[in-house]
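The passage that follows is intended for readers who have already worked through the single-chain material. We present the inputs for a multi-component assembly, then the predicted structure in tokenized form, and finally a short commentary. You are encouraged to pause after the input and sketch how you expect the pieces to fit together before reading on.
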Amino acid sequence: MSDFTRVASTSDLPDPGTMLVELEDRIVVLVHVDGQYYCLDDVCTHDGGPLADGSLEGCELICPRHGARFDVKTGEPLSMPATEATGVHEVRVDGEELFVRIVET
Amino acid sequence: MIESTKQAGFTGAEFDQFLGSRDEPDWLLRRRREAWDRFEQLPWPSRRDEEWIRTDIRLFKLDRFSLPLGSEFPGEPGDALLSEGVELAGQSVSLNSQCSHRVLSESLESQGVLFGSISQLVQDHDELVRELLSRCQSHSESDRFTALNDACWSGGHLLYVPRGVAIEEPIHLHSVLSDGGVDLAQTMIVLEEGASATVLAEMNSQGEGEAGLHCGSLEMMLGAGANLRYVNLQNWSDATWHFARHNARLGQDASLQWTSAAMGSRLSKVNQHVMLDGKGANCQVNGVLFTEGKQHLSYHTLQHHTAPGCRSDFLYKSALQDRSRTVWRGMIKVDPAGQQTDGYQRNDNLLLSDQARADSIPGLEIEADDVRCTHGSTTSQVDEELIFYANCRGLARGEAVRLIVSGFFQQIFDRITVPSVRDALAEAIARRVREFE
Amino acid sequence: MATDTNTPRPEETLGEINKYDFQTKTDAVFKAEKGLSRDIVKQISSMKEEPQWMRDFRLKSLEIFESKPMPSWGGDIGINFQDIYYYLKPTNEQGRSWDDVPEEIKETFEKLGIPQAEREYLSGVKAQFESEVIYGSLKEDLAKQGVLFTDTDTAIKEHPELVEEYFATIIPPDDNKFAALNSAVWSGGSFIYVPPGVKIEFPLQAYFRINAENMGQFERTLIIVDEGAEVHYVEGCTAPMYSSESLHSAVVEIVCKKGSRCRYTTIQNWANNIYNLVTKRAMAYRDATMEWIDGNLGSQLTMKYPAVYMMEPGARGEILSIAFSGKGQHQDAGAKLVHAAPHTTGQIISKSISKNGGRSSYRGLVRVEKGAHGSRSNVVCDALILDEESRSDTYPYIEIAEQNVSIGHEASVSRIGEEQLFYLTSRGLTEAEASTMIVNGFIEPLVKELPMEYAVELNRLIQLQMEGSVG
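Having made your guess, compare it with the prediction:
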């Protein structure tokens, strides 16, 4: 299991809001909604392209290219044309700082 | 540690300094300058480009590397697999884009064979080098990487074989990268009419986890009736970024056997284009991709038949371990003039883990009717029965898988006509087979 | 009232099917203005007296359509979106008289052996079949079994819960630009619901839906096959189809529930001025089978890739596609199979023919998602190029993310073999006859799956096409 890495300050990410984070060997999307933080792979499983510039509607992240919706808590696809879940990772808040731990599935 | 006076990145100031350090004719310096201007204007390829949609390079940071401005190479280059036990006609070693060692048999020198780095050879053969550079294929898919290479190439090799000269023993090209090292080779292999040669090229990193950058180009030009066997073994560390364009142009009745084995790199994006440009030309490509960890290898091949009666046969075999990923895109393109084309393309994939992913995109664009063009792609799994059989004979699972993998690649080995290469490849592959439980 | 007149162009070769616009006099009750706007979309919705949710859906879809770029791949889509009528409510009198139909077209009908009543219907002379008696009783029979078969406009009003549950869930408007367009301006199309266990023995045909415009520009079809049910639906015909509007963009959504079977057959032979851009997708659940039979003969440009998403174990998808491109035509057709569950199987067979400068492209996808172990799929694409002006392309995409699978793909491009031709001509056939026989043999896997009258018509059509090709 990898360690937690500091990725941002809480002030960087409003509620609701999304933010692209580049780690050493991975790019992820941080999501802040309903007072909670979530982290997903920056990959839409439908076409393999990025998810970060999609819009956030409640707890759903919507891919800008073909409208596939993903549950930010579980990464599960909620609409066509996506049929596969995208990866989710752990987020921890420590004071004013946000930490992410990558979960390999 | 590397001693140098380098600043980080590929800045304009660095490029000026680089240009100033080159002892090259003005026309060549101008050519570099024009390419640099293109480099500065172009953006990095975006995920929206069809070529790059499956290959994410956002984590590639050019500013972690610098132009090779002449530094000491730390330590030894390490083992060369392809030259082991082989008698060579010539050899050239390039460390972090600096040519450190070059030798060619005297009899070949006397027959007019040219061999060495382009920067060196241009001193005495200005016109010839200029002419050859102008014949390099212009690329409609020219991008920021090719512009970078066109501006900043150093190291690399030129092999020029005059009319009718046959080089019996192989010529060996060896490129090595140290940690943070950069290889910007521009390699040209030119065989005039009726010439023949065998070239073995390999590239590796000094150590396992060392991050290097290779942004290179290869041009092969075969005159009428020329015959070339070219072998490339890419064995960089798993942390190295590898961007390359490889082009070959074949004249009438020319023949090219091209073996391309890729096992290293963190991410590879390679364009391999062969143009069959003279009646009766013939090209056979044997591709091996064997990946592990989180590697991502993307190969884009093109068999372009512009002349009639040519034959091209591309076979790519990929075996994937762990969470690695391969993308193979191949196209057979036949122009209206390409009548009596015999075009064949095949990609076979063996997934050795359920986290791996193989994308296979063969393609055909045919504008002549009297042709025979086929392509095929298969993806399959390890045959558990074979594992069981091997277990019964006392082999552990890891050894059994190693056997299966080498069995998978056997079809490629059978097509390679240089015996030492077959052995070297088999060895390289065996070393990388993951131990399975 | 607008009257469109186009001078017919002379035929070029004997027997060659040359399709072109001809005089139309339309006495439409309502014709929206040209072009696309929020107002027009609202008008369409009001004319149909739709519920609020559908109206909102259309308007949202229009926004999506406007925000999406044109596809950068496929054929050349030279459409001026503002120069098209998006809604035309026809009357019973289409105003086209049989006398206006060009001789060559009448000859084609003659050669294809199509009954007179059908001819009049197909050439827009009559808005509906006169043989209402025959089809009327068929409808009664279906209704007794609980089968719902009507047009989509009616379905929204009469079966709203069913429609709302599935509509646009398989192909959301964001999916692609033309799905968005259809979602905004759709009209007509079939709605079919087959209750559990009901197996409909005869094929349901598009022209059984007597009470709505058929062969419309923006049809929207929704088929729901409940558990264990079976249905075969057929649309289109081999005779050349004319339309005053040059953009046709349909959407077909199909749900095959556990253990069900659905076959959807299309034979498309649109006139050569038409852009035919279609999105067709089926979801197959546990042990369900979905079959697409797709015949593309006409249109200036067709872009169509029938898809099967296999969502649960045991699901199966089969796609049989044939494309014939003649002069000035581009068929960019194909198929998609997505294995999203373990132990799913699929098959794609594509046959394409290009002649007289036509261009046939196969574009397809086989995707095996992580976890879909035990999946098997095979794709075979064969292309015939009949002369050196023509072109054939193959663009298959294969994405495999699971190890225990078996996926194969092969494609080949060639022309009619010299040896085959020689064998047949040496037995007394002319070169044209021999070529026709070979081409018919080439497409035989598809033809044998068609209802008989289609098979007969298709064979005759190929014969006609081939007669024009060997000079």
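Commentary: Chain C touches chain A through 16 residues (CB under 8 Å). Chain C has a mean pLDDT of 82. How closely did your sketch match?
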